[in-house]
Amino acid sequence: MAEHRTTVTWHDPQEVLPQLLELDGLGYVEAVRDGALPPDPLMEAMGIHVVEVEPGRIVMTCRPAGPHLNLGGIVHGGVLSTLMDCATGFAVHSTPPAMHTAPHVSAAYQFLRVGHAGVELRCTGHVLRRGRTLSHARAEVHDAEGRLLATGETTHGVLDVSAGTTMRSGPSA
Description:
The chain is α+β, with helices and mostly antiparallel strands. It has one domain (14-160): Hotdog Thioesterase (Thiol Ester Dehydrase, Chain A). The protein has helices at residues 13-22, 25-34, 41-46, 77-93; strands at residues 49-54, 57-62, 100-101, 104-111, 121-130, 134-142, 148-157, 159-160. The strands form two sheets. It has a six-stranded antiparallel beta sheet with strand order 1-2-5-6-7-4. The chain is globular, with a radius of gyration of 16 Å. It starts with 12 loop residues before the first helix and ends in a 13-residue tail after the last strand.
């Protein structure tokens, strides 16, 4: 069996965080779209790009290749899940003021069709409800021919980090 290799590059999120906190959510997402700031490291590693943004709505794309496939030769469900996770997260993040973040607290994804290597995926995420402490978003992934491959919905906590609030994990269950 032939072995294949790839090189992955990304930015350190701790270096980006000070710039991110100075912007409101929409300003940050627009900066990522425009290339002024890098996206999340996982988005960089997977080749996920922000192509459209408006408050509460985002469009992201990626073109899966070899490392994105499962043993059956189709796009891995984890890639589709990650794409929807990023799209819903950025859609919600495009709505709060500066010094706020909105981490995922739940996610549910459904896979309807398979994706193929080299075929661009387009994921649209939009906010269903923006609340003071919780927000909900929906995502759809289509292939280059417009076929619906997957859908998902997520819930996000809305946190004000201006008072030094940090996200931290609790004890293991």
